[in-house]
C-alpha cells in the first residue's frame, strides 16, 4: 500500500476522469451551451416579424393622421393653405380644437391658465349657477394657519381683455373637469360647455361673472369662456384624522345627501400645515376625488402649490407681495407618431431571460443527485477521493459550463443587435452574471443535499424555474413601482436568488427602455450609485448568499449526505474528548432465543474473547476488529424495528480471507455497509487498522478497496480509464500506474481483444463484475470488502477470479460474502454463518463440517409404496439415523459415522434391490452446503427414525 494521495493528486485524478467523460459526452454539452443560441434566434425572428408589422402599420397611421389634420400647416410655410406633403405637416402655433393635437405633431404647445381642481362631474355644479365650496385646514399652529388661508383668495377682479393671460394669473380659477393624459388641449376649455369658477372668500355679488376668449389672428381659438363666481369657505379642524373622517364620510353614497344638507357645500380640498410657522414652511394637501367618478389621470396640483406659497409670502413680506402664476404648458409633442416601436427583447427580458438562465439549475442539480442516488460519489469516496477535491473539481466544472453558457448567450444577443445586451455596460453584465451563476451552483449543491432520488429533484427543479419566472414577472414590477410597499421588504424578497436575478434583469431592461439620468440608454458603472438603481443592492445580496450557501451546503453534505458518520457538531471535533477504544454498548438487550444461544456456542464465545483481548492489547497483524457491532433499522408505519446485525464480534488478521455466509436478509450486506461507511452503526463499533469506523472513516478510505454487490461504473468510460482513475486515487503514478493497470486487466482477462479500451456500457455482466473486482484490488489496499464478487460469472472466469483473490489475500485482510459454498471453501481461510443478524458459527470449512456434519448422507429413490420398507432398512442399519428430506419416493437420511460402516450400507442397499425397485441411491460425506442448511434452518435435530 502506497502513501495516501495528496489533495492535488486526487483533484488531478477526478479532473482527468471528468474531462475524459465529458469528451465522450461532447454532444450533450454542445447542445446545452447552444441552448441560449436557439432561444436568441427565435427571439430575433419574433422581433423581426413584429418590426415588419409595426413599420407597415406606422406608415399607414402617419398618412391617415396627416390627411386628417384640419388645423395643420407646412413646416416651412405658416400659411394654412400651403401645399406640402402630408409627412411635413405640423400643428400651427394656435389651432382650432382638440382634433388638431390628436392628429398632428405640436411643436408650439398652447398656454393655458392654471386651474384649481374642484368637484368632478355628477351634477354638483350646474352650467348656469355656481355652488360654493369648502376647504379644510389643520396644523399644530392654528393662528399661523388661519393667517395663511385668510389671504389665499384675491378679493379684487381686474380683467385686461388685451392681455387675458396676465389678468388670469392673479385670479384663482377652478373647474369641475379633470385632466387627461395630456394638457395639449385642456378639457375645461375645449369642451362645448366652457364654464370656469372664480374662487373668492367674500360673498359673490350679483354681477360677479365675466367672459373671455383666446384670439389667434383673425379666428377665435377658444370662444366665449364663461367665469362664474364661487365662494370658498375655509374651515379649521383639530387634526388631519378629523379631515380624513369627513372625506371618508363624504365618500359614502348613503351619507352624501345628508352630509351636503349639513355642510351645504362640497369639500374641494384640504391642507395640513403640520409644524409650519414663520420659520418653517411644511405643508401637505389633499385633492378630493370620488370613487364613482372618472379616473383623474393627472392632478391639478400646481395652482394649489401656488396658492399656499403665495399666502406664506404675504404672511412674511406683506400683502403687496405676489407670486404670479402666468400659465400651464407642456413640452412640445415630437414630430412623429404616438405609436412607438416595440422592443421585444427588453419587453420580455425579465421573464424570458430569467427562464433562460435558470435552465442551468436543473442540469446541475440532476447531475449531483444522480451521483448520490447511484452511489457513484460514494464509490469514489470509498477508494480515497476526499470531499475537498470532489467539491473543487465539480464546482469548477459547473462554473466552466455556466460561464460558457452565459458567454454564448450574451455574445449571440449582441450579435443580433438586441439593445438589452448592446446598450448595457458589458463589465456590469459580466459581474452580475458571474456572481449569479456562482450563487446558482451553490444553491444546487445546497438543494442536492436534501434529495436522494433524481425524479423528485427534477420535478422540483423545473417547478422552481417556471414558478420563479412567472411569480417574479407578475408580482415584482408592481411592488417596485408601489411607493406604499416598504423597501425593506423588497430587500427581503431579493434574498430569494430567482427574484434577485429577475430584479437585475429588470434593471437592465429599464435602463435600455428609459435611459439613465444623463439621457444615455443602458446602465453604466456610475448609475449604480443612483438611489433608484437596485443593481448594487442585489450584487451585494447575491455575493453574501453565494458564500453562505456554499458553507451551508458543505455542512449539510457532511451531516446528512455523508456516510462517514459525522455528527451535526463535527466542526467542534477539536474540543471534544476522544472516544476510547472500548466497547460502546447501548444497553439494548439481545432479543430472541437465537441471540442468547449464540453465547453458548464455544466458537462464537472464543471469537468474542479474542476481540476483548485485542481491544486491551492491540496486535499489529489484525486489520479488522468488530466490537459488538449492532445495526437496527427503525420501523415505519407501525411496524416494529428491524434488527439487522446483533452485537457482532469479529477479528480478521492480515493475510486472511474471511467468508461470510448466510441466507438472504441475514444481515451480511448491512454489515458490509457499516464497514465501508454507507450506513452508521446503531451501537458498538469496528476498528480497521486501529481507526474507528464511526469517526475515522475518511482516513480509512485511502487504504480500503470495495467490490460492491452492484456494479458502480461509468457507462462511457473504458475499463482502462476506470482503473487509471482509481489507481491515481491510490497515489499510483507514472510507470507504476500503467503497470498496475495492465496487470489488473490481464489477471482478470480484460486486456486482450480490445476489451480494455471498450466502454463499460458495452461490457457483459460478467465483464463488469470482473472490472469491479479489479477496481477493489488496484493500488494494493490493506483491507478489501467483496460482496458476492463472482455473481454472473461463467465457470472459467470464476476460476480465474478465484486465483486473483487467492494471490491478493496474502498481503491484506479480505471480507467476502457469497452464496456459493464451493467459492467459500476455495477462497476463505475462515467462514462465519450469519443468520438473523447473529453469527451462529465460525471456523474453517473442515471444522464446521466436523462440528455440524459427522454423518453420511444416504439418498434413495424408490416407488412410493416402498418408502416404509426403506425406512425399516435404515432403522435396522442405524437406529439413530435422521430423515432430513422426503418427497415423492426420494428420501435422505443422516447416518452418524460412528454408528455405521460404509460396507454395511452397500450391503443393505444390495439386499434392498433384490426385494423392490431402487431407481437411484447414493452415499455422500457432509458438505458445506449441508452445514449451511442445517445452521440456517436453526434446528440441529432433524426427524429421528427411532
Give me the secondary-structure topology.
Elements: H1 7-24, H2 26-68, E1 72-74, E2 89-91, H3 98-103, E3 115-117, E4 133-138, H4 142-149, H5 164-168, E5 173-175, H6 187-190, E6 195-200, E7 210-216, E8 219-236, H7 240-250, H8 253-263, E9 267-272, E10 284-287, H9 302-317, H10 344-347, H11 349-358, H12 360-373, H13 376-382, H14 387-415, H15 419-422, H16 426-448, H17 454-481, H18 487-494, H19 497-514, H20 535-561, H21 593-598, H22 602-616, E11 622-633, E12 642-653, E13 657-661, H23 668-676, E14 683-688, E15 691-692, H24 697-700, E16 704-707, H25 719-729, H26 734-747, H27 765-777, E17 783-787, H28 795-808, E18 813-817, H29 821-827, E19 830-835, E20 838-843, H30 845-852, E21 855-861, H31 867-877, E22 882-887, E23 890-896, H32 902-915, E24 920-925, H33 928-937, E25 943-944
Parallel strand pairs: 3-5, 4-8, 4-9, 6-8, 13-18, 13-19, 16-17, 17-18
Antiparallel strand pairs: 1-2, 5-6, 7-8, 9-10, 11-12, 11-14, 14-15, 19-20, 21-23, 21-24, 22-23, 22-25
Helix pairs in contact: 1-14, 1-25, 2-14, 11-17, 11-19, 12-16, 12-17, 14-16, 16-20, 17-19, 19-20, 25-26, 30-33, 31-32
The CATH class of the largest domain is identified as: Alpha Beta
What is Rg? Answer: 47 Å
Number of helices: 33
Q: In angstroms, what separates the terminal alpha carbons?
A: 59 Å
CATH architecture of the largest domain: 3-Layer(aba) Sandwich
Mean pLDDT: 80
* β-sheet strand percentage: 15-25%
Task: Detail the poorly predicted runs.
Answer: 75-82, 93-97, 120-130, 251-262, 290-294, 578-599, 940-946
Biggest sheet features: 8 strands, mixed
CATH superfamily of the largest domain: P-loop containing nucleotide triphosphate hydrolases
In CATH, the topology of the largest domain is named: Rossmann fold
Number of domains: 5
Helix content: 40-55%
**Total number of beta strands:** 25
What's the shape?
elongated
Question: Structural class of the secondary elements?
Answer: alpha/beta
Amino acid at each position: 500500500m502506497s502513501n495516501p494521495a495528496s489533495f492535488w493528486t486526487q483533484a488531478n485524478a477526478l479532473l482527468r476522469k471528468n474531462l475524459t467523460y465529458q469528451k465522450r459526452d461532447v454532444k450533450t454539452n454542445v447542445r446545452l451551451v447552444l441552448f441560449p443560441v436557439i432561444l436568441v434566434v427565435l427571439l430575433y425572428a419574433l422581433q423581426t416579424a413584429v418590426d415588419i408589422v409595426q413599420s407597415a402599420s406606422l406608415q399607414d397611421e402617419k398618412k391617415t393622421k396627416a390627411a386628417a389634420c384640419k388645423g395643420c400647416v407646412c413646416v416651412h410655410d405658416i400659411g394654412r393653405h400651403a401645399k406640402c406633403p402630408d409627412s411635413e405637416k405640423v400643428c400651427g402655433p394656435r389651432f382650432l380644437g382638440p382634433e388638431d393635437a390628436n392628429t398632428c405633431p405640436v411643436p408650439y404647445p398652447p398656454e393655458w391658465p392654471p386651474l384649481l381642481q374642484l368637484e368632478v362631474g355628477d351634477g354638483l355644479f350646474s352650467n348656469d349657477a355656481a355652488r360654493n365650496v369648502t376647504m379644510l385646514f389643520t396644523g399644530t399652529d392654528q393662528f399661523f394657519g388661519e393667517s395663511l388661508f385668510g389671504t389665499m383668495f384675491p378679493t379684487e377682479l381686474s380683467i385686461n381683455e388685451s392681455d387675458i393671460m396676465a389678468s388670469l394669473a392673479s385670479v384663482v380659477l377652478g373647474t369641475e373637469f379633470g385632466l387627461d393624459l395630456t394638457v395639449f388641449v385642456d378639457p375645461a376649455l375645449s369642451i362645448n360647455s366652457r364654464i370656469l369658477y372664480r374662487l373668492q372668500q367674500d360673498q359673490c355679488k350679483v354681477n360677479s361673472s365675466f367672459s373671455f376668449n383666446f384670439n389667434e389672428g383673425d379666428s377665435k381659438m377658444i370662444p366665449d369662456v364663461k367665469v362664474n363666481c364661487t365662494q370658498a369657505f375655509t374651515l379649521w379642524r383639530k387634526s388631519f384624522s378629523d379631515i380624513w373622517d369627513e372625506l371618508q364620510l363624504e365618500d359614502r353614497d348613503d351619507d352624501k345627501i345628508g352630509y351636503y344638507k349639513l355642510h351645504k357645500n362640497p369639500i374641494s380640498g384640504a391642507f395640513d400645515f403640520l409644524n409650519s410657522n414663520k420659520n418653517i414652511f411644511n405643508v401637505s394637501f389633499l385633492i378630493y376625488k370620488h370613487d364613482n367618478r372618472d379616473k383623474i389621470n393627472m392632478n391639478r396640483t400646481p395652482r394649489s402649490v401656488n396658492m399656499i406659497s403665495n399666502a406664506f409670502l404675504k404672511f412674511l413680506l406683506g400683502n403687496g407681495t405676489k407670486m404670479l402664476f402666468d400659465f400651464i404648458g407642456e413640452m412640445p409633442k415630437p414630430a412623429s407618431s404616438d405609436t412607438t416601436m416595440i422592443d421585444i427583447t427588453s419587453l420580455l427580458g425579465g421573464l424570458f431571460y430569467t427562464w433562460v438562465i435558470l435552465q442551468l439549475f436543473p442540469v446541475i442539480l440532476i447531475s449531483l443527485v444522480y451521483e448520490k442516488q447511484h452511489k457513484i460519489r460514494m464509490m469514489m469516496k470509498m477508494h480515497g477521493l476526499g470531499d475537498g477535491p470532489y467539491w473543487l473539481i465539480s464546482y469548477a466544472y459547473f462554473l466552466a459550463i455556466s460561464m460558457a453558457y452565459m458567454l454564448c448567450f450574451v455574445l449571440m444577443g449582441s450579435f443580433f443587435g438586441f439593445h438589452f445586451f448592446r446598450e448595457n455596460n458589458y463589465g456590469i453584465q459580466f459581474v452580475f452574471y458571474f456572481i449569479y451563476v456562482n450563487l446558482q451552483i451553490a444553491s444546487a449543491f445546497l438543494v442536492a443535499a436534501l434529495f436522494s432520488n433524481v425524479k423528485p429533484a427534477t420535478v422540483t427543479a423545473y417547478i422552481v424555474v417556471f414558478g420563479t419566472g412567472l411569480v417574479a414577472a407578475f408580482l415584482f414590477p408592481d411592488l417596485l413601482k408601489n411607493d406604499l410597499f416598504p423597501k425593506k421588504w423588497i430587500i427581503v424578497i431579493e434574498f430569494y436568488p430567482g427574484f434577485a436575478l429577475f430584479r437585475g434583469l429588470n434593471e437592465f431592461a429599464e435602463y435600455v427602455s428609459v435611459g439613465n439620468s444623463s439621457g444615455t440608454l443602458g446602465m453604466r458603472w456610475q448609475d449604480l450609485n443612483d438611489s433608484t438603481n437596485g443593481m448594487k443592492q442585489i450584487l451585494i445580496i447575491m455575493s453574501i448568499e453565494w458564500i453562505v450557501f456554499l458553507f451551508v451546503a458543505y455542512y449539510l453534505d457532511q451531516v446528512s449526505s455523508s456516510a462517514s458518520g459525522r455528527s451535526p457538531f463535527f466542526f467542534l471535533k477539536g474540543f471534544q474528548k476522544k472516544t476510547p477504544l472500548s466497547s460502546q454498548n447501548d444497553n439494548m438487550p439481545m432479543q430472541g432465543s437465537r441471540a442468547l444461544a449464540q453465547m453458548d456456542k464455544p466458537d462464537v464465545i472464543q471469537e468474542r474473547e479474542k476481540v476483548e483481548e485485542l481491544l486491551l492489547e492491540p496486535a499489529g497483524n489484525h486489520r479488522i476488529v468488530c466490537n459488538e457491532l449492532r445495526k437496527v433499522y427503525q420501523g415505519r408505519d407501525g411496524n416494529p424495528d428491524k434488527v439487522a446485525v446483533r452485537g457482532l464480534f469479529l477479528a480478521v488478521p492480515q493475510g486472511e480471507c474471511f467468508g461470510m455466509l448466510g441466507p438472504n436478509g441475514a444481515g451480511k450486506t448491512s454489515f458490509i455497509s457499516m464497514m465501508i461507511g454507507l450506513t452508521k452503526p446503531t451501537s458498538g463499533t469496528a476498528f480497521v487498522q486501529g481507526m474507528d469506523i464511526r469517526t475515522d472513516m475518511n482516513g480509512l478510505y485511502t487504504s480500503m478497496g470495495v467490490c460492491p454487490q452492484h456494479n458502480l461504473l461509468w457507462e462511457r468510460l473504458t475499463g482502462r480509464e476506470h482503473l487509471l482513475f482509481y489507481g491515481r486515487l491510490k497515489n499510483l503514478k507514472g510507470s507504476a500506474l500503467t503497470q498496475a493497470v495492465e496487470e489488473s486487466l490481464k489477471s482478470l482477462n480484460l486486456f486482450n481483444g480490445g476489451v480494455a479500451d471498450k466502454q463499460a456500457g458495452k461490457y457483459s455482466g460478467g465483464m463488469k463484475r470482473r472490472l469491479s473486482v479489479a477496481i477493489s484490488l488496484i493500488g494494493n489496499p490493506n483491507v478489501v470488502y467483496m460482496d458476492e464478487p463472482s455473481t454472473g460469472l461463467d465457470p472459467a472466469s470464476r476460476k480465474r477470479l478465484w486465483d486473483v483473490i487467492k494471490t491478493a489475500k496474502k498481503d491484506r485482510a479480505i471480507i467476502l460474502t457469497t452464496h456459493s459454498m464451493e467459492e467459500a471453501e476455495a477462497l476463505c481461510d475462515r467462514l462465519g454463518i450469519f443468520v438473523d443478524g447473529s453469527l451462529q458459527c465460525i471456523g474453517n470449512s473442515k471444522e464446521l463440517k466436523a462440528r455440524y456434519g459427522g454423518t453420511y448422507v444416504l439418498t434413495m429413490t424408490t416407488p412410493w409404496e416402498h418408502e416404509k420398507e426403506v425406512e425399516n432398512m435404515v432403522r435396522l442399519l442405524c437406529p439413530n439415523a435422521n430423515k432430513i428430506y422426503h418427497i415423492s419416493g426420494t428420501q435422505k437420511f443422516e447416518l452418524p459415522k460412528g454408528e455405521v460402516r460404509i460396507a454395511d450400507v452397500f450391503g443393505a442397499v444390495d439386499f434392498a434391490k433384490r426385494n423392490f425397485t431402487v431407481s437411484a441411491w447414493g452415499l455422500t460425506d457432509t458438505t458445506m452446503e449441508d452445514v449451511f442448511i442445517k445452521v440456517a434452518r436453526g434446528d440441529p435435530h432433524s426427524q429421528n427414525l427411532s
